[in-house]
Amino acid sequence: MPKATFSESAVPSFSEAPSVILVAGDVEFFVEEAAAKARETLGGKDVEVLRFDDDAPAESVSDALLNRSLFSPGRLVQLDVSRLLGTESPGRLLVQAVEAWRKGSPAGRREAFRRARALLSALDLGRSGDPEEAAEAAAKRTRKKEDAADLAEILRELPEEKGGPTVVGSALRLLLERGNDGTVALLTATAPPAGVDLLAEIARKGLVLEASVGKDAAGALSRLARARAKQRGVAIEPDAIERLRAQTDGRPALFASELDKLLEWAGGGGHIRAADVRENVEDVASEDVYAFYEAIGRRDAGEALWRLERLFSGREVRAGDRAIDPDETWPVKFLGMLTTELRRMLLIRTRLEEKGAGASLDAALAYPAFQARVVPLLEEPVSPFGRSPFEAQGRVSPYPWFKAATRASRYTAEELARALSRGAEVDVALKTSAPPLETLAVYVGGLIAGE
To answer: 50 with 64: CB under 8 angstroms?
Structure first.
């Protein structure tokens, strides 16, 4: 299904809008945030805005969608259709309903009822039967039998719902056929599954906008954490937010899920620190080889050895955006990558010293200054080859050499040469059944120590 990425400029004015606009995404917070911005654009002094929560009678929602406003030229009807569109994870809905119910607060009860209705809709289980039987059926189908008793308690107290999702679905289809004749539906949905007929119809005849973290993912996740913490009356430290982002690998849905667990753990008036995140959240983050190189460049033994352990922990390994398969050949492959980087560091170190430009090796050197002062020296041809040893495919790529230069700035040429020489011994050891992590840890430790 084609989607447009949400932006304020992607939202048309009310008069130019299709009759149905859906804002969807994987994280409820960003969906709600985007919908609020869309409502600002679509609303105005000549537009009546009606917002319905999940407890609103289906007939009231249907009437609002199919009838024009008596007081304004335009009517904007906002509602969440996550339950109507369904979900691919009913097990998660069951867990969320039970967790909300156990809070014992009015807000928790409302959340539990909302999740329970979505669960029944996702599993196509009606409300007319016995609560215990419905709960047992739902728990069995989601493989969460331990939650059956709690779910039955929720279903016993679940308020009667007039009409149902099908009534709202029919009204939306009629509105799509009719077009914008003064009424526009602004819908929201969190993690809707692909292949739903109504979703496809909205994409064809209306507008689907995908809400995400955007380009500033770190800033967006930090904003989410601060907002949710404020709602719960919990203090959360900036370092804790950054640690949570790192340990969830910056995956928005996982970040939001683990954040909710932390806030529940802390409780109202609680405080979340980075150490709390380390203790309570599983570290599923991938590891970037370049972050390890940076630790080598800083001669930070603790950081380098910690990252080395992560590189051999079985987690996903990256080199920037490129994925690396840490298979059985990974130790030897990794050593080859590390010695290649050390060779680059040694080459640029010796070249600049030969040119009397050793002072240019400064860890704080800015990239523009490197381009202006150092790159011309790297581009000079070397006799008798008539070309620069820094070239690749006929040109010098400045940025990789800039990174190698900043990393080499804290080492002498002799230290780098010794490390490269020892690399041959480590290669032999790795190929003759030496313990990979221990062998490489000794090598890295010796490199940083200058031994």
So the answer is: yes
Q: Where does CATH 1.20.272.10 sit in the chain?
A: 288-449
- Look at strands 322-324 and 235-236 and give their pairing: unpaired
User: 435: how many CB neighbours lie within 10 A of its CB?
Assistant: 12
- Whether 159 contacts 55, CB under 8 Å: yes
d(CA 439, CA 332): 11
Q: Which amino acid is at 273?
A: R
What are the mean pLDDT values of the chain's consecutive 10-residue runs (451 residues total)?
76 94 92 94 91 84 90 93 73 82 83 81 69 86 85 84 71 93 93 79 92 88 95 94 87 89 90 92 81 92 89 85 87 94 92 74 81 86 81 83 90 94 93 91 94 86
Residue 266 CA to residue 264 CA, distance in Å, equals: 6
Query: What are the two backbone dihedrals, phi and then psi, of residue 17, each rounded to the nearest 5 degrees?
Result: -80, 150
DSSP3 helix / strand / coil % (the chain, rounded to 5): 60, 10, 30
For 51, the token pair is 């917002």
Instruction: Give me the CATH code for the 217-280 domain, please.
Output: 1.10.8.60
What are the phi and psi torsion angles at 383 (to 5°)? Answer: -75, 150
Q: How many residues does the chain have?
A: 451
* Phi and psi at residue 247, to the nearest 5°: -75, -20
Task: Answer yes or no: are the C-beta atoms of 352 and 359 closer than 8 Å.
Answer: no
CA distance from start to end of the chain: 59
Euclidean distance between CA atoms 392 and 389, whole angstroms: 8
The identity of residue 280, as a single letter, is N
Give every strand in the sheet of 317-319, ordered side by side: 287-288, 317-319, 322-324
Cα 32 to its chain centre, rounded Å, is 17
In the chain, list all ranges with CATH 3.40.50.300. Answer: 1-212
Residues of the chain with CATH 1.10.8.60: 217-280
Partner residues linked to 25 by β-bridges: 190
Q: Which residue has the tokens 């907002």?
A: 227
Query: Interior CA angle at 333 toward 250 and 412, to 5°?
Result: 90
**Domain spanning 1-212 has what CATH number?**
3.40.50.300
Helices then strands, counting H and E runs in the chain, come out as 21, 11
Interatomic CA distance for residues 398 and 376, integer angstroms? 10
| φ, ψ for residue 317, nearest 5 deg | -120, 140
Distance CA 22, CA 28 (A): 13
Residue-level pLDDT at 1: 40
Q: Give the pLDDT confidence score for residue 191 in this predicted structure.
A: 82
288-449 CATH, one of 3.40.250.10, 1.10.10.10, 1.20.272.10, 3.60.15.10: 1.20.272.10
